[in-house]
Every structure is written in C-alpha cells, then in structure tokens.
Amino acid sequence: MKKQWWHDKVAYQIYPKSFCDSNSDGIGDINGIISKLDYLKSLGVDIVWISPMYKSPFVDQGYDISDYYAIDEKFGTMEDFENLLAEAKKRDMYILMDLVVNHCSDEHEWFKKAMADPHGKYGDYFYIREGKDGKEPSNYRGYFGGNTWDKVPGEDNLYYFHAFHKRQPDLNWENPEVREEIYKMMNWWLDKGLRGFRIDAIINIKKNTLFPTYEPDGEDGLVRVTRNVEDADGINDFLREMKEKTFAPHNAFTVGEVFNLKKEDMVAFVGEDGHFSTMFDFTGEILDTGHRDWTDTSRIDFTEWRDLTFKSQAEMQDIGFLANIVENHDEPRGASRYLPEYACNDDGKKMLATAYIMLRGIPFIYQGQEIGMVNCPREDISCYDDIASHDRYNKAIGRGFTPAQALEACHRHSRDNARTPVHWDDSDNAGFTDGTPWAPVDKDYKEINVAKQEKDENSVLSYYKKLIALRKSPNYSERIVYGETIPVFTEEKMLFGYERKCETDTILVLCNFADKDITLDLTKLQKKYTKVLLSNKPVELCDKLVLTPAEALILD
Ligand code: NOJ
C-alpha cells in the first residue's frame, strides 16, 4: 500500500459551539479553539475536524448553510479563521472543515431565488416536482421525520425535496452548474490552506430522480428516504469528478460520513485511488439505534460489536483505512454507550480507548472524550435543543411510550448528550465561558475536567496521551498503523483481544469487558509476549494471565 501523509495521524473533532468561548457570549468560537491548540498538540492530535462554522440559521446546528463563503459571526470572522489556519500550521496541525453539500439552508440565496421563480435557473438547483393526486410527489419519510416534500410557497402543486429538515433543501447534483459551484467553493477553502474535509451525508447526493413511490414501511404510509438512495446508481461518477477537481490537486485529507454503502463500492470509495482518504466505521453506532425508532432500541451487545468490528477490520485490510470512532456530535457519549455499568469508571474509559485506538485505521477522538465525559440527561424534553431528538421523542410517544419512557430514551440516545460544553476546569461553567452557556454544563464537571486530569499521571487524559504516544513511537508505529488485525481468544465472549502484526513483529491488545476475571493462557499464542507497553492497572506478566474487570493491556 502506497504510504500517505495522513496514515499515522490522530484526529480530533471539535463541535465549535461547545468547545471554548473566548468572548463570553456563551458560545464557543474560533479564538477559543486557537487558545486550545497547544492542549490538543500535547494530547498528540494532528488533524482537527471542526463541525460547521459557516453562516447559518442553525436550525440543524450549522448543518444548514446559508453562505458557504462566510464564517458565522457567532464564531468570529474570516480573519480569525485564517489566523486559526496559520496557528495550526505553526504546530504542524491540519484543519478540516465540514463539507455539507447534499443540502443547504432555506436561507441560502440559491434557494430564495428558486422559491421566487421555481421554473427559472435556480429552480433547477434543487429538486422541484409536481405533486400527484393532490398529494406530495412521493412517499418518503425524512431523516428527521415527516414527508421529504414541502410545498413551494405560493404554488398549488409544486414541491421541493429535503431528505433532512424542511429548512435543509437538497441540492440538485444532476445539474452540472451546481456541481461546478460546489467545486469552486471547495477549492476556495483549500486554496486558503484548509487541509481537507469531513464530508457530510454524502451517499444522499445521488437519487433516483424519478422519485418513485415505494411500498410504505410504517403506519404513516411513508417509507424511509434511504429506500430511494438505495435505488440510485452512479454516485461514483459524481465523486470521481469531485475528487479530480478538488481533493486530488490539493492532496487533501478527506473523511466521508457514509452510511448504507453498497459493498461493491467499498474500493471505489476508500481504496488506494478511492474518492476519499477514509470514511468512518459506524459498525458500533448502528447497533443500538433501533430498526424503527427509540421504541425498539437495545443496549449494545458487546460480543456482536467486537465481532463486527473484527469483520470490518478484515474487510479493510487489503482495501484501505477506516476512521475509528466511539462517539461524535450525532451520538451519545462513548463511555455511557459502550461500557457496561460496572465498567463506567476511569479504568473502563481507558479500556475503551485502548480497544479502539489500537485498531487499524485513523483514530478520531471527539471533544471531551479524552477526559471521559459521559451523557448529560436533561429534566424535560423542552430542555433539548436537537431537532432529531424532538422527532424521535414524539414518535416514541406516538407508539405508546409514556413521557417518562420517551425521556429515558432521550437520555440514552439524544445527540445533545455529546453537545454540552467541554469541561476545562472546576470554575463556574467548567471554564467553558464567562457568560451563560448556550447548552447546560454537566453536573460532574468538578470531578471530570481537563485541569484536574492534566495534573494526574493516572487520569483518563494522561492515559490517552500515552496511548497516542505509543501509536506514534518509532518502535511500534509501523505495526500499529499498518499491521494486520488478528483477533485472539475470541471464545472469551467479553474479551476484546487482538494482535497487530507487521511482517514478524506483533503487539497484543487485551481488554476485559466482563464483570469478572478472565484467565488467558498466553502460551497458546504463536508469539511470546514479554513486555508491557501500556496498561490501565498494575500488572505482572506470566503465562496464565488473569485480567480483572475493565483491565486493558498492550504487550510487545
Ligand atoms: C450528518 C451530521 O453529522 C448531522 O449532525 C446532520 O444533522 C446531518 N448530517 C444533516 O446534515
């Protein structure tokens, strides 16, 4: 495999509204990010992906862009942003922005012009169709609930399409002029020094533009909108063109948010000459979300998660690299989600980090994860900001959940769990702001915060630093970056154990997710492991190794 500059890098996601506020308005901003670059550097981070900061009405927290060429004033100015790029460069760090081009905001001038004249040039920037029999053109349920078609104002029988919220109209990728506008904008940012993009919801750009009506899959008479996307061929042509005209000439790093990828498209997406550098491995994220909605969710089954992760590692070995995550701004906190209750403590958090950061792929850490932040339940549904949470809550009630049950589901699954301010220290508002924070600060910030953990050699934060340092150490980096992942002791249902093997060199990773000891006979392995590289508990190596609950070990 041809080596690329980003293969051995560690990435970190910033959700800017909640990261660090420098001007006391209660909202995180660019100068706040700049003030924490040294902190990120000390953690070992190279690549920083920042969720959208473009001008936006913030209906979906910035994933609804009204001007692709402007920084929203909440976050600062273009000059601040350029300063961020320069400060990152000084530290050998790379900044990625979010590329949200499946849709824009209803406040984007293209959409305003399209609504004013649906048959004119800008009407063709969107999907505008006639209704059928006095109803919407087809029967799709959007990602945030409700029909994907809404009326063009002032028109009797014209509708525009939105896979997400009605204020996030989908852009018509079939129109070459739209594609050229998008590429122009991407190059404008890359020319400024942006190092790449995280690419939002990209599978949705190719649709079956006949928009057929399908068999409903719910009592609402609708069918999930992904049904249409699955029915569309030709996305590779769009993405090949996008890469040729933007990423390739800039040698950019790109990470795709891709759900429902057809297996046969894997190589085209992330193979050596793939459309993207990498894409997120969502193996774990899809396990507990429920097939239908919050009324049929379950807790993550550890063994299923482990085995599917190994399957995904094996599939990718000869193709390329996935980006490994345990949380992001759309998911609950990883510790609350993946750790059994008995292990939701510092040892468990270090174990979870060990299990996924040592895998093959590019590790992404989500802000606050490195100090072990957990879900932050709110008292009432009215205290939640996220549009998706409101939709899911209402659906759960509609399906017979009591308000208490629906709220409990919200506590576990809401996207707002990970969107609370980062805990920097134990001062008011966790040191996030001197003003009133836009979202509640979790009560546990006095115990879980950066300042405290920086001083503690045994903290979760210090452990993350050691893990990342190990990934990058000259003696081990080749194995950890490129080595094959070989599962071991899989008969132990609650053990996450694997070797990483490069030619004859290996390391062994063992994590005990069980609530009791697990004894392993290390002589059964082909290699003899003699050195502890990292562990979250004191350990003495011997052939019959006893791992206590939430114990994690990396051996050479
Ligand atoms: C995925 C983003 O991560 C999510 O936050 C957003 O709501 C949707 N795409 C729509 O852009």
Major sheet size, sense and barrel closure? 8 strands, parallel, barrel
Q: Which cofactor or ligand species appear?
A: 1-deoxynojirimycin
Helix-residue proportion = 25-40%
Tally of contiguous helical segments: 16
Mean pLDDT: 96
Low-confidence segments: none
Distance between the termini: 24 Å
Task: Bin the strand percentage.
Answer: 15-25%
> Would you tell me the structural class of the helices and strands?
alpha/beta
- Give the number of DSSP strands: 22
The order of strands across the largest sheet is: 1-2-5-10-12-13-14-15
Overall morphology:
globular
Radius of gyration, taken over Cα atoms and rounded to an integer in Å: 24 Å
Word description of this protein:
This protein is α/β, with parallel strands linked by helices. It contains 16 helices and 22 strands. It has helices at about 30-35, 35-45, 80-90, 110-115, 175-190, 225-230, 235-250, 265-270, 300-315, 335-340, 345-355, 385-400, 405-415, 450-455, 460-470, 475-480; strands at about 10-15, 45-50, 55, 65-70, 95-100, 130, 140, 150, 160, 195-200, 225, 255, 280, 320-325, 360-365, 485, 495-500, 505-510, 520, 530-535, 545, 550-555. The strands form six sheets. The chain has an eight-stranded parallel barrel with strand order 1-2-5-10-12-13-14-15. A five-stranded antiparallel β-sheet has the order 16-17-18-22-20. Strands 6-9-8 form a three-stranded antiparallel β-sheet, with no helix packed on it. Strand 8 (about 150) and strand 9 (about 160) form a beta hairpin. The radius of gyration is 24 Å and the shape is globular. The two termini are about 25 Å apart. It binds 1-deoxynojirimycin. 1-deoxynojirimycin binds near residues 63, 200, 257 and 330.
